[in-house]
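Bit of a strange request maybe. I'm writing a small parser for structure token strings and I need a real example to test against, not something I typed by hand. Could someone generate the tokens for this chain?
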Amino acid sequence: MYAIIKTGGKQYMVEQGDKILVEKLNAAEGDTVNVEVVAVSDNGDVKTGVVAGKVTAKVLSHGKGKKIIVFKYKAKKDYRNKKGHRQPFTELEIQSIQA
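Reply from user aminoacidic:
Good idea to test on real output. This should exercise your parser:
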């Protein structure tokens, strides 16, 4: 059994016990959260829509991703702009999928 969930503007295909990194959620570590479900597949029977199912996940940790460098410049104009960015994330463990 697997489900397709949507969070942070992205979709993820998950099964029970999977650990995934998603965009940062406003939940404390150890909390359980319900995630929006797009589709659920149970032995080849696919259900889609709002009432497709229910997925609960446990928040394992929060953190920041790898640093990326954003560097802009204009040739021959003495313009240089260097910025770094680390995207915050939340690590989730899928506890249950109900169709």
